[in-house]
Amino acid sequence: MTAKPHLRLGVNIDHVATLRNARGGVHPSPVFAAELAAGAGADGITAHLREDRRHIREADLHGIKASVNLPLNMEMAASTEMRDIALAVMPNAVCLVPENRQEITTEGGLDVAGQAQRLKPVMDALKDAGIRLSLFVEADAHHINAAADLGADIVELHAGAYSIAEAQAQEQAQDAEYRRLLMGAELAARLNLECHAGHGLDFANVGRVAAIPQVVELNIGHYLMGAAIETGLAAAIKTMRQRMDEARA
User: Fold this and answer.
1) Residues 48, 55, 143, 158: which is the catalytic one?
2) What is the domain range of residue 55?
3) Residue 83: partners with Cβ closer than 8 Å, 6 or more residues away
4) Which of 43, 224, 225, 242 is deepest in the core (most CB within 10 A)?
């Protein structure tokens, strides 16, 4: 039997910055949270620099790059402003996501097929600089194929609908969404796209997604930060790592 590849855990530290910004100042520190995550077994750090700077700021990205010896995954909109910041920060990877000023959090996948002409110049500039390119998409063949056509290195499958169905105890809907994620991951692998998944994953629902052999990275943030209030961040990350490893085995 062929062994499944190691499943990486990317810890999103956005909501540490959300808490800091609620009062201003410098506490709590997203950079310190990233250092804690590294020590607890995270494989990478994810941070979303929004155009309205509601949580992460440019200084946070530079601080993480300087202080944390883990790959940095910078989530951002496909704008020229964000492109220029990414070229200054030089993260390991950039994940292009849809962004709506009125949303509380990212509400869905990127319309890759419909926005290809807008995405391509930003993607080309980042790839030319040696930054890996990820696109946050629904587990939909139309958009996954479009991502491959645009030269993306990675697709991150939006697990939001799967997670919502689990939270609402809608078993049939969750099964259907799981099958969509499974088929999306299989298609990504056939297209030689590295496959990640994220959004809404928690201790209860992570197992099925972690067991998909084509998925090589999960990006998890909000749930871990909430669990950290009860157990501490390091303990929350170690528990998530354990759940992922058990499912992978």
Assistant:
1) 48
2) 8-248
3) 122, 125, 126
4) 224
- Which CATH number fits the domain that encloses residue 242? 3.20.20.70
List the catalytic residue out of 15, 143, 196, 199: 199
Q: Answer yes or no: is pLDDT of 85 > 70.
A: yes
Q: Is 48 a catalytic residue?
A: yes
- pLDDT digit string (tens) for 87-107? 999 999 999 999 665 544 556
H helices present in the chain, as ranges: 14-23, 30-40, 58-67, 80-89, 116-128, 141-149, 160-167, 171-190, 206-210, 222-231, 233-248
In a domain, residue 3? The reply is no
Question: How many domains does the structure of the chain reveal?
Answer: 1
Residue 148 lies in a domain: yes
Residue 176 lies in a domain: yes
Q: What's the whole-model pTM score?
A: 0.93
